[in-house]
Design goal:
18% strand; binds adenosine monophosphate; alpha/beta; binds magnesium ion; 16 strands; eleven-stranded mixed beta sheet; DHBP synthase; 2 domains
């Protein structure tokens, strides 16, 4: 299949929307990461997302809407807390999981009786939802397991020849996937951290429960509240090892383990004295920049053919919790603690 490369100009968006309406797959920019979109009402179109990504069929997708009234066709009921959160954080990087309405295809929900919904803020994503007239089911636009793409050229690396089109909307402003919460129970439950932080959720919804899978590997035999959390994820070819400690402890650890193929993925300004090649992903105290750069840094490790990447461990506060959660999975939970 010849993949079309579209700009974010009007004629191109009209053409991309026509493809979506016809049941084709189109990669689209959002404020979090690029998404691989299909008409969420079309089970066959949604099924082809799983094939294009190589995604396990038990991992459900997020449905993207442009207007709150589209929720009514997707969910069985809208809890008051979801109304309140939508009022403050939609459009934006917050996904909420509801009991699903009849008629949402099983391919979207991977057979669950719940559905994940988000209203993105990216103008191109919103325009495409409006022009196509469909809610769009869209996971991240990478091959399953590899780091999420934050620009169109990374999408093309994974998806050229496998999907109908890629819409280039420039670099994603957030850089990590949306916050995912369940609003089905008595209490809001965080399943995946993102740019809408625990503090931001609690300011509107009261105490938020943090699912064990956010920070720990799933115990043998346990079922994941969010199926995506059970896979080794976001991982480059290189073996990633998180190293927790201050700049000096990190540097000494990396240098003690220097060898052919070893690289450092460190914080900006902490490169001095490293005895191995390095990449950086934002300042230690700047989790917003870390989020913007972390996936690109993981992809660059492979371009540099790193065998091992000792990665400075981010502080898990605010959006830093999302960066830490992704790096933990990229590292397969391998963490060296020096403090
Ligand atoms: P992605 O953004 O491509 O990484 O995938 C969407 C994420 O949302 C995955 O981690 C899914 O497991 C999660 N998700 C989607 N729908 C549901 C649902 N109904 N219940 C729990 N988690 C969900
Ligand atoms: Mg993904």
């Amino acid at each position: 299949m010849q993949t079309k490369h579209y700009t974010d100009q009007k004629e191109d968006l009209i053409a991309a929307a026509a493809l979506l309406r016809a049941g084709e797959l189109v990669a689209i920019p959002t404020e979090t990461v690029y998404g691989l979109a299909a008409d969420a009402r079309n089970g066959a179109a949604v099924a082809s997302i799983f094939t294009a990504k190589g995604r396990p069929s038990d991992n459900p997708l997020i449905v993207h809407i442009a207007d709150k009234c589209e929720l009514n066709t997707l969910v069985a009921e809208i809890p008051a807390v979801a109304e309140a959160l939508a009022e403050v954080y939609w459009p934006g990087p917050l996904t909420m999981i509801f009991n699903k309405a009849e008629g949402v295809p099983n391919e979207v929900t991977a057979g669950l009786d719940t559905v994940a919904v988000r209203m993105p803020s990216h103008p191109v994503a919103r325009r495409l939802i409006e022009l196509s007239g469909c809610p769009l089911a869209a996971p991240s636009a990478n091959r399953s397991g590899s780091p999420s793409p934050t620009d169109a050229h990374r999408v093309a690396e994974d998806m050229d020849g496998r999907i109908a089109a890629i819409v280039d909307g420039g670099a994603c402003s957030v850089g990590v996937e949306s916050t995912v919460i369940s609003v089905c129970g008595d209490r809001v439950r965080l399943l995946r951290p993102g740019a809408v932080t625990v503090e931001m959720l609690e300011a509107v919804a009261g105490a938020v429960e943090i699912d064990e899978a956010v920070l720990k590997p799933l115990r043998d035999g346990a079922t994941a509240a969010s199926p995506g959390m059970k896979y080794k994820h976001y991982a480059p070819e290189a073996r990633v090892v998180l190293v927790r400690g201050d700049a000096a402890a990190y540097r000494d650890y990396v240098n003690a383990n220097a060898a052919e193929g070893v690289m450092a993925l460190c914080f900006d300004g902490e490169e001095q004295g490293l005895a191995v090649p390095y990449l950086t992903y934002g300042h230690r105290d700047d989790a917003v920049t870390q989020a913007q750069q972390v996936f690109e840094a993981l992809r660059l490790l492979d371009e540099r053919q790193a065998a091992v990447a000792y990665t400075a461990c981010p502080s898990p506060e605010g959006i830093g919790l999302a960066v830490y959660n992704r790096l933990l999975r990229a590292a397969g939970f391998e963490v060296v603690i020096l403090d």
